[in-house]
Design brief:
Blueprint (H helix, E strand, L loop, with lengths): L2 E5 L12 H11 L3 E5 L5 H14 L5 E6 L5 H13 L4 E5 L4 H7 L1 H8 L5 E3 L2 H9 L5 E3 L20 E5 L8 H14 L4 E5 L6 H11 L5 E4 L3 H7 L5 E4 L8 H8 L3 E5 L4 H4 L7 E3 L4 H13 L1 H15 L4 H12 L1
Parallel strand pairs: 1-2, 1-3, 3-4, 5-6, 7-8, 7-10, 8-9, 10-11, 11-12
Helix pairs in contact: 2-3, 3-5, 7-8, 7-12, 10-13, 12-13
């Protein structure tokens, strides 16, 4: 049995949305790997300490997987990867950070210390693959984020209604205030319109969204963090999924929405155009452009043929990310 150490933010027990460490780690366990995890410490300093100790403790592991982000958590990847180098361990950064391209340009020496010495660099996003290649990195492999498609029942909507769903952590980078503005405009034309916003607070954006909704006298359902099962069940009441992010790589929430039969309208930023094809499996609009998103939503409501096309193709696209397909890419590396 091969042994893996998985380094990342395993924080769902603290009310944070589960990340790749909990999803991919569990799937790898089902494939027969022995997986150790670090860390679930809420305090950042304690989390880093636990990660470093785990690298030393499990230094006999066959591979170390490192979820690699672009802001403060970037330094977890740096510290643990350098300890792996010292201990001659094979480590695999998994590139998640929305602003990793910024890191490549602004911290080139540190990035080379991490990514030049890794066993492989795994990028779920083709956008980040391009960014890394343009900076001269070669040891790259594209493995998309994964879902288990059998857990997502496709619901065929006979008539598109102005019922909007937004699912993300409430953080400025995901621009939740744009969703409120979009809903305000939609509500002027469709009095029956609804908006549900699902996700935990991250940087004060939830409070700001609630205040904006109150100021505009909008009745928006804010659910907070929901379990996967609960938000999938909630999604049955909605027809259109809006993704308002300022920056993204390969958002699983968008893939999940497509799998459930929701029509996706998204800002055309970062890795989104590498994931979605405008007019085929989604409608794409400019960053922070409320009017464009409103127009796209209205098109879906008024043109049932377009809605059917987007939702059917979206489901077909989402099936490409099923574990039964993606697992083979991981097995090539790990076995």
């Amino acid at each position: 049995m091969k042994t893996l150490l998985y380094i990342g933010n395993k924080l769902s027990k603290h009310g944070v949305t589960p990340t790749t460490i909990e999803i991919l780690g569990s799937l790898l366990e089902q494939e027969g790997f022995a997986v150790h995890y670090s860390s679930s410490q809420k305090n950042q300093l304690l989390r880093l300490t636990a990660m470093l100790w785990s690298v030393f403790q499990y230094r006999k592991s066959d591979y170390v997987l490192i979820d690699t982000y672009s802001t403060v958590n970037f330094w977890y990847a740096f510290a643990t990867s350098q300890l792996c180098r010292c201990l001659k361990m094979k480590y695999i950064p998994i590139l998640h950070g929305g602003n990793l391209a910024f890191r490549l340009k602004n911290n080139p020496r540190i990035c080379r210390m991490i990514f030049n010495y890794s066993f492989q660099n795994v990028s779920p996003s083709l956008f980040l693959m391009d960014q890394f290649k343009s900076e001269g990195f070669q040891n790259l492999r594209h493995i998309p984020n994964v879902i288990e498609i059998e857990n997502y029942a496709f619901l065929e909507r006979k008539k598109a209604k102005p019922n909007l769903l937004w699912v993300r952590s409430f953080a400025e980078i995901y621009n939740p205030l744009m969703a409120v503005d979009v809903f305000a405009s939609i509500k002027k034309k469709y009095l029956e319109a609804t908006l549900c916003m699902v996700g935990p607070e991250k940087d004060g954006s939830l409070l700001a969204a609630k205040q904006k909704a109150k100021n505009l006298e909008l009745n928006i359902q804010f659910t907070g963090k929901l379990s996967k099962e609960d938000w999938i069940n909630e999604s049955k009441q909605y027809d259109i999924f809006i993704n308002t992010t300022h920056f993204d790589n390969m958002p699983v929430s968008v893939v999940e929405a497509m799998s459930l039969g929701l029509a996706v309208v998204s800002t055309n930023v970062g890795g989104i155009p590498f994931l979605l094809e405008n007019q085929k499996d989604a409608l794409l609009v400019s960053d922070d452009n409320v009017n464009e998103m409103v127009n796209a939503i209205e098109r879906l409501i008024e043109d049932q043929d377009l809605f059917d096309k987007i939702t059917t193709n979206g489901r077909l696209k989402s099936e490409q990310f099923d574990w039964k397909i993606i697992r083979n890419k991981w097995m090539v590396i790990l076995k």
